[in-house]
Amino acid sequence: MLPLQGLFQRQHHFQHLLAMAHWDQATMMPDHSAEARADAIAELETLCHQQLTAPQVEEWLNQAAQDSTLDAKQKASLREMQRQWRQAAVLPEQLVKAQSLAGARCEHAWREQRKANDWQGFAANLKEVVALSREEAQIRAAATGSTPYDALMELYEPGMNCARIDSLFGELKTWLPGMIHDVVEKQRSLSIVQPQPPFAPAAQEQLGRAVMALLGFDFHAGRLDISAHPFCGGVPEDVRITTRYSEQDFTQSLMGIVHETGHARYEQNLPGDWLKLPVGAARSMGVHESQSLFFEMQLGRHPAFLARIHPLISEHLGQRPGMDLANLQRLYNQVEPGFIRVDADEVTYPCHVILRYEIERDLMNGALEVEHIPERWDAAMQQYLGLSTAGNYRNGCMQDIHWTDGSFGYFPSYTLGAMIAAQLAASVRTQLGDIGELITQDRLAEVFTWLRQHIWQQGSLLETSELLRQATGEDLSARFFRAHLQARYLD
Amino acid sequence: MLPLQGLFQRQHHFQHLLAMAHWDQATMMPDHSAEARADAIAELETLCHQQLTAPQVEEWLNQAAQDSTLDAKQKASLREMQRQWRQAAVLPEQLVKAQSLAGARCEHAWREQRKANDWQGFAANLKEVVALSREEAQIRAAATGSTPYDALMELYEPGMNCARIDSLFGELKTWLPGMIHDVVEKQRSLSIVQPQPPFAPAAQEQLGRAVMALLGFDFHAGRLDISAHPFCGGVPEDVRITTRYSEQDFTQSLMGIVHETGHARYEQNLPGDWLKLPVGAARSMGVHESQSLFFEMQLGRHPAFLARIHPLISEHLGQRPGMDLANLQRLYNQVEPGFIRVDADEVTYPCHVILRYEIERDLMNGALEVEHIPERWDAAMQQYLGLSTAGNYRNGCMQDIHWTDGSFGYFPSYTLGAMIAAQLAASVRTQLGDIGELITQDRLAEVFTWLRQHIWQQGSLLETSELLRQATGEDLSARFFRAHLQARYLD
């Protein structure tokens, strides 16, 4: 295992520099530096790929596989090394470099094109990204015997595939439209007012930091900054989350910060002694999203949590019309079909994911072309949420960063994460007690200890399904998510 | 030349990522991430060193040296490649890695140790840095037949050595003490008051940006941020300058920004088409410093420039006691022996440099040990400037960042830069006219065009001495610097 450990430690160090260069690109970098940055990132990504796929690595992996002295942790470590190697070795170096360059170009241009609602400009770049991703998907699919889209999803959610997603999302589709209807009806009579703007970004930032501290974010090993599209980046030793502030509305940014803090605590609490090896990394994108959604949905929007942070909100933003606790509790649990995924409530959110899943699946499997995305998007939005996005690219198919750099296969993770979060919360409830009571009794630390033990400190020791079984006693099921929505919005 | 160009282009890309990681380390990074960052930087620095010193590089260089078809630019390019290769190849990889780690550790700890005046804590780290730098200096000296310190100075100022420095600094020593005495006497009767604080950092920053814009800084390819020790970092395509704000005094930060803007404009205007090759890089540290000092001393503190930016100062900081133009002109040209190099006026500044030069020269040549630095420092400060720093390490030998990461041999560049700047300004005066009149007539663009043509766009095409001869018609001489001081402070 020693030469493998050396290799993956070097990769960890290079990934540190790449993560920081990406973070800087989204938060700090001036606009004319994009090309130089893209060139620099592509160079190191190419090198990482070369080192991971060098001829001797396969030999090292084969030798390690025959080592009968490996303990459970070492076996898991080897399994994750094999997975990374397999996923990297199958791709030609030139493709990796071309994707890095095209993705950086497309993403950078998108930041302005989205503002300008410039679909034609964006589509030209996106076609290049899609063409390269299809090439990648076909190469991966040919190697594993799966469909192209399944092969990409494996990168984000190992062990997942379209058959399982279709089953899980298919179940959602049977009851979700009815539930959205019922909740909207139930909430129709509620009086919900928007807190009165303006809210100074500096005050919002101070509030955000106070809530991050309450949620245990370690500011000695991370930062909060601003970017066009909020994300959690950096490295486990230096976790960088971002948000964006609107003077008109503090509520989205505040809950966005709670969300990213969930990602951040997972990263900040990964097992330190294995941190430089793949087995020490976060399990999957779905599990990652389950932590952010646990923080946002199970904790953050809980009426008891809002009661807990209401004094902080008043302290930083003052008392104004619409800032009373009862109104904020209604506002943060309001269900309303809308255009923007990142602004969606948790009841309508799966609709945004399912439509993106269906589009990117067909795009990668060759059943859809870039120029037809807007009409597919519009049709699905009308069908699932009763809204039209015709001509409104900015708030339609140009709203997300994911496709700009070719991250096809990622979107399902959001709804898988929501389901996992609900399932974990059900176990917390069984083992520790009602979450509202835990919050009210200032016992959040116990919840974090539970998550640390069952999820964060596990790293990638177990496969996702086994991780979930050990934490909750059973396989992933949509029924916990349904029960959570039922309890919060209809009971 | 093709394989060499590929190699140096890769180095350029990796240096981009390293420069950004260093910038982030000084401006953004949370404190517990220092070790992970140091590991990551050391890994890529080691790789750069490996690639630059790989066995085939010497062959490529030898082949290129026999190529009779090279034009002047290619010949200069090859000369700089040979220089970089020679400087890198002589060092063992383990030493490079150990220096990177020890330097990062020492620099990071210094940020707190300086505040705490903790010489003992700092000395422990510095000894490690000095031991490694001596090892480096001895290896370099053995390879070139020079003294250890000369071998290090060659890294920053190719072609320079102690004999020449001793001559130039020796000349300064004959007239500078007398001049300091005369200027202090002349200014004794001047009424100079400190502008009345406080000055909000946000307003100072806005003022700084306005002055940077006036000086032609390209904000599309660079940034202004905050760090404990101001510097100009990043890469030519993305130049990052920093400053630090004191609420008690805006004047130092403002002129610090003018200084770093001089460095930045040099970087931002290097020859774009050779940028990824060594011939496209800045010539030397002395030439770099000549640009920052041209901006700060020849332009920034000129009474006419202060008159030009006085409306901006009033606009951003308001009108208060001590903010009138006449007082600011006196304040910005006040000569007063003090503890801090970066706060020193240009008349006493060479004393700070000469004492550091003498200490680091003896330290590297083995004639001085770390534990005796404070007493040497104190003795020299008393001799040159009549001030004692006994026990005051924070404002004595712990004030600079340079030694923390082993940058021995750099300090002479500051005073070489001051001399070069004065010599360049004399040529500008001959060719374009009096600098005060150029400023008053809003003809700064002509000065920048002159610098762009004679210095910035030259990159490393010429050796420093030839660059200076082509720009000014003669070799480096201290007489222009003396004439400048005489004219500004005594005539």
UniProtKB/TrEMBL annotation, chains A, B:
Enzyme class: hydrolase
Record CDD domains: M32_Taq
Reaction catalysis annotation: Release of a C-terminal amino acid with broad specificity, except for -Pro
A Pfam family recorded for this sequence: Peptidase_M32
InterPro entries: Peptidase_M32_Taq
EC number of this enzyme: 3.4.17.19
Gene3D superfamilies per UniProt: 1.10.1370.30
Record keywords: Carboxypeptidase, Hydrolase, Metal-binding, Metalloprotease, Protease
Tree of life domain: Bacteria
Function in brief: Broad specificity carboxypetidase that releases amino acids sequentially from the C-terminus, including neutral, aromatic, polar and basic residues.
Record family assignment: Belongs to the peptidase M32 family.
PANTHER family membership: CARBOXYPEPTIDASE 1 (PTHR34217:SF1), METAL-DEPENDENT CARBOXYPEPTIDASE (PTHR34217)
Protein's name according to its UniProt entry: Metal-dependent carboxypeptidase
Organism expressing this protein natively: Pokkaliibacter plantistimulans
